[in-house]
Amino acid sequence: MNAPLIASPTPTPPCHAGRWRAATVFLTLLLVIGFTSGWSLFEQFKAQMGHLQSQLQGTSQVKYVAVLLDAQQAPALLVTIDTHEGVMQLQRLNSVKEGREDTMQLWALGQAGTTPRSLGVLASAGKTLRLAVNEAALKDVTQLAISVENKGGVSQSQGPRLPYLFQGALVQKAL
Fold first, then answer.
1. Same structural domain, 72 and 49
2. Which of 39, 135, 137, 161 is the most exposed place for a label (fewest CB within 10 A)?
3. Structure letter (DSSP) for residue 111
4. Rounded distance, CA 71 to CA 68, Å?
5. How many domains does the chain have?
């Protein structure tokens, strides 16, 4: 007699679906954290770039420099020109002061034979003075000079009194 075969229960394969689901949730969380971290870093970078650009715009951009020398070839005046702001800064390097009835006047000198152009009167006896300047006024200028004039300065047509008190080359900086 044949004994009926009893089917032995076959072991069921273990269910891995729970593990896959947990791994998927974990990796999704990692992606979200990574994305938000990257986005945060990007926003911080943009904010820093904006801050640095505003600082750069606020920084003086000196384009021209001149050191005016006295008769003994000693430095007397440092001139820096920021054409972006339209400002010329003059710093006295010596103690020469004009008399009560005198005024120092700044002149732009071009090639030989050209008429000097007045860039302004040094109205302050302080160590540093700022004058407004237009870059077009510096076109073809090779030197700057200071003359001593009667109080208030002289007109362009009258021209400077010679010899110049201070004189020096105007140099355009490499940017």
1. no
2. 39
3. S
4. 10
5. 2
Q: Residues 50, 69: one domain?
A: no
The pTM (predicted TM-score) of the whole model is 0.65
User: Does the pLDDT at position 159 exceed 70?
Assistant: yes
CA 98/CA 18 separation, integer angstroms: 94
Could you tell me if 27 and 45 lie in one domain? yes
User: Distance of alpha carbon 66 from its chain centroid, rounded?
Assistant: 19
The CATH number assigned to the domain holding 167 equals 2.60.40
170 DSSP assignment: E
Task: Tally the residues of the chain.
Answer: 175
Judge residue 17's burial from the number of C-beta atoms within 10 Å of its C-beta, 0-12 exposed, 13-18 middle, 19 or more buried.
Answer: exposed
User: What confidence tens digit (pLDDT) does each residue in 68-105 have?
Assistant: 999 899 999 999 988 878 888 999 888 777 777 788 88
Place of tokens 């600082």: 55
Spatial separation of the C-alpha atoms in residues 150 and 64, rounded to whole Å = 28
- pLDDT at 7 (0 to 100): 61
